[in-house]
Design brief:
mainly alpha
């Protein structure tokens, strides 16, 4: 077991000295393998008490390294992917990169579900994904309104409300965004009504009745 443990420690030191998050994930797996081998050894009935205690002490050290490297991998990988998501121009690419970051955190949460840093980072990325989706539909709504397609703009704003309602965002942000979008929708509805009124006025001035015929 000493040779195996020395191998784990060697890779652990190399991972800590380097800048590659995947190296930490590799050490995490090495620790898992080491712990499993230790469990197999402990099942033997021929071990002395001293040897058994030594193996268990080694397991505690391995568990410490395992946690350290998995959390380091999750933190560094998710940060890099979140930065990538922020730099992407297309909505689909931003969400894809953010989901990859979230997957790293969720992988670590399977082993350490109460880890505060993982929970907070996961919540932040979920909020980022929600904000990207909402911003996408708001932008489409604004484009449609600019072109005078008010009904289409209203539908796009409603899509934004859909993702706003089902996404993970801070309550104060959700409330403020909902109110702002609601005001935009009411403004657009007023424009639609105004358009209808204007068309009806033009029809009357041109002498066209509601059935499309000429008025007397």
């Amino acid at each position: 077991m000493s040779a195996a443990w020395q191998n784990v420690q060697k890779h652990s030191d190399e991972a800590d000295a380097g800048a590659n998050p995947e190296a930490h994930f590799d050490v995490f797996h090495l620790c898992q393998t080491h712990l499993a081998a230790a469990d197999d050894t402990l099942r033997s009935n021929t071990l002395s008490s001293e040897r058994r205690n030594s193996i268990r002490a080694g397991q505690e050290r391995a568990r410490g390294l395992q946690k350290h490297h998995l959390l380091t991998w999750a933190r560094d990988s998710s940060r890099a992917l979140t930065y990538e998501a922020q730099q992407r121009a297309r909505t689909s690419e931003r969400i894809e990169a953010a989901n990859r970051a979230l997957h790293c955190l969720e992988t670590a949460l399977q082993f350490y579900p109460q880890e505060t840093e993982l929970l907070e980072s996961s919540a932040a990325i979920r909020e980022f994904i929600s904000s990207v989706k909402v911003a996408h539909w708001v932008e489409l709504a604004e484009r449609a309104a600019f072109k005078g397609h008010y009904r289409r703009a209203i539908d796009r704003y409603k899509d934004a409300l859909f993702y706003l309602d089902r996404g993970t965002m801070k309550e104060e942000v959700r409330v403020a965004s909902t109110e702002r979008i609601g005001r935009e929708i009411e403004s657009l509805k007023a424009r639609v009504r105004s358009q209808k009124g204007g068309k009806a006025e033009v029809a009357r001035e041109e002498g066209i009745d509601d059935q499309g015929g000429l008025s007397e």
